């Protein structure tokens, strides 16, 4: 039997590394990590205060996604501290999103696309009540 300790990293394919780095650093606020000298372009990022990471890999092949956000499609999720502040930040940055404050998941969710159409879920423990 396997004993899973947690997720180490998620890898995403990107086409333009600089464009993706701008998105993940400026919009999501991720901090870049040192990366081994692979024979392909990419970047590694720390996620939160854990040892979890996001790896970007430059890939010139085709992807499956061509349209808008479909919340049933493959994605990864990041927990945010404030749903309301996340919406305000995305609005300020001009990022289009799909908001599901009262979805069936039991916690509020926001779905966005990165520059390469990778779906990212941003969710909070609870919805702030004004």
Q: What structural class should be given to the helix and strand makeup?
A: alpha/beta
Number of domains: 2
Distance between the termini: 47 Å
**Largest beta sheet, briefly?**
4 strands, mixed
> Please, what is the CATH homologous superfamily of the largest domain?
2,3-Dihydroxybiphenyl 1,2-Dioxygenase, domain 1
Q: Strand-residue fraction?
A: 25-35%
Number of helices: 2
Helix content: 10-25%
Average pLDDT works out at 88
Radius of gyration: 15 Å
CATH architecture label name of the largest domain: Roll
CATH topology of the largest domain: 2,3-Dihydroxybiphenyl 1,2-Dioxygenase, domain 1
Low-pLDDT stretches are none
Order of SSEs? EHEEEEHEEE
Overall body shape = globular
Widest beta sheet: strand line-up = 1-4-3-2
What is the CATH C level class of the largest domain, in words? Alpha Beta
Please report the total strand number as a whole number: 8
Keywords: Metal-binding
Domain VOC: 6-125
Pfam families: Glyoxalase
Organism: Paenibacillus profundus
Task: Write up what this structure looks like.
It is globular and about 50 Å long. Helices cover 17% and strands 32% of the residues. With 130 residues, it is of the alpha/beta class. A hairpin with a 5-residue loop joins strand 7 and strand 8. A four-stranded mixed beta sheet has the order 1-4-3-2, covered by helices on one side. The protein has two domains: 9-58, Roll (2,3-Dihydroxybiphenyl 1,2-Dioxygenase, domain 1); 75-124, 2,3-Dihydroxybiphenyl 1,2-Dioxygenase, domain 1 (Roll).
């Amino acid at each position: 039997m396997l004993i899973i300790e947690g997720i180490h990293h998620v890898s995403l394919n990107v086409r333009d590394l600089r464009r993706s780095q701008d998105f993940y650093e400026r919009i999501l606020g991720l901090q870049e990590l040192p990366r081994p000298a692979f024979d392909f372009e990419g970047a590694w990022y720390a996620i939160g205060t854990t040892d979890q990471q996001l790896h970007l890999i430059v890939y010139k092949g085709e992807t499956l996604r061509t349209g808008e956000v479909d919340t049933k499609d493959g994605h990864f999720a990041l927990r945010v501290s404030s749903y309301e502040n996340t919406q305000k930040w995305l609005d300020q940055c001009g990022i289009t999103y799909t908001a599901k404050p009262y979805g069936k998941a039991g916690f509020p969710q926001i779905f966005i696309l990165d520059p390469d159409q990778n779906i990212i879920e941003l969710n909070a423990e609870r919805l702030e009540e004004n």
